[in-house]
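Hi V.,

You were right to ask for the full record rather than a summary. Here it is.
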Amino acid sequence: MAIVINPINPVAFSVLGLPIRWYALAYIAGFIIGYYLFRYLTRNKDSAICVSKKQLDDLLTYIVLGVILGGRLGYVLFYNLPYFIENPLEIFMLWHGGMSFHGGLLGVIIATFLFASKQTFQDKSVVRNSFRILDILSVVVPVGLGLGRIANFINMEIMGRITNSPLGVVFNGISTEPRHASPLYEATLEGLVLFIIMWLLYTKTNLKNKPGAISGLLCVFYAIFRIFCEQFRQPDAQIGFLTSWGLTMGQTLSGIMFVIGLTIFVCASRRK
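Predicted structure:
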């Protein structure tokens, strides 16, 4: 017996006639929580890098731009390039949806390296400082991921494949066939579970003293969780399956991410 629920209004509330959507609130909450979580981890005496409040405020600006620009451009390039070539103005219409985690991650990495190159730290190496910051961000990222996937569920986006499982969800008045609530699966694995893993790795091991090790493992674990969850997620209609045996774009990008993350982890772990 499937779970039947009423559709949730994607607009949380309005301010002076301007609709404020749950999706936007998820991003805002993710940035705010991430800011204070990053601040807490860097103020700890065992932190791998010391970041002042001014530097943290600047870093937040870089990260916000990296997430938005990278996430949007990633979606444009990886998921719907022919459409955006014909409709270039749609690229700027973020409220229509369409963000890529893999693109956003690449944007954050570039933004972090740019930030580190313009700052003064005790260690003069831009690469090591960048990876130290990325290691801390690896603890923060799952928070935003989890909130974003919950917002996807509210918006009835990236829903799962048709299923006879009792966990199948039917949106009353919208669909008649039960589907996997794949955004909630991803919110659990890529959000909650990944956060716990990253938190323990950073606070309970010595990996934070090997710049790049933890951020490499973030890529590895995220890729594993994403590839698994894609088994229940309906592929994007404009792409479909990439192969006859069911490979999706998300799995392809995550496979590349796994190899890169594992390489970074191995190289970082072997450095003295």
